[in-house]
User: What shape does this take?
Amino acid sequence: MSPFHTMNKNSLIILMPGMDGSGFLYQPLSRLLTQKGLDNTIEPLNPHQDKHAYTQYLEQKYRDNNLVLVAESYAGHIATQLAIRGNLHIEKLIIMASFLENPTKLTELEKYFSMNIIKKPPLPEKALAKALFGKGGNDELMALFKQAMQDVTEQQLAGRIKDMRTLTLPTQKVNQKTLYIQATDDWLVPAKNLKSYQQCFENLTVKKLKGTHLIAQGNAQECANLIDDFIKKRPAGVATRILL
Assistant: This one.
């Protein structure tokens, strides 16, 4: 077997969405991974009653598969729990702009504001596109964002933010090789959240990409390149590379 292609050829990449839970925003990244010959599927969170039902669904559906989990934002702690539980054959994990503990004091705002402010942010579309996706914002991403916001309810958003406030660092370690992609301009999940992953993950590689919290969308091409490199284990030089 080539030393640069260590992932089982039958391995499947599961794309686990962030707080919107819809998976619509993963479409550009999924398309790029497919172009690279990486078999992948998007597994939405929204159809399931809660994250526990989602976890059980994934464990049942993919129990016979070799997997790579790709999880952004809210899904990062779910992917971590799946690895700890050990009911799936998870070969590698890719975590993007995520957290294992309450990521920011901004989660307190859920107590005082309607979640409609997330579903329909009070900004002109061009300004909203820049705030969400940085320089990578475009019409396709804005259309997908609107679809995602139509798919998720205010109750689901509120419940997930409440859940964020209760998160605590896992006591068990994760052994799988893991790539953490950190966005340079992420004010929703500040850089300090990386420390939790460094404490919990024993085989962690960190890459920084220029972009906002929605790094998998605003910088989808570079994310796809990093994921492809990490899965295929191409030589990457230093352990941590900053791409600006």
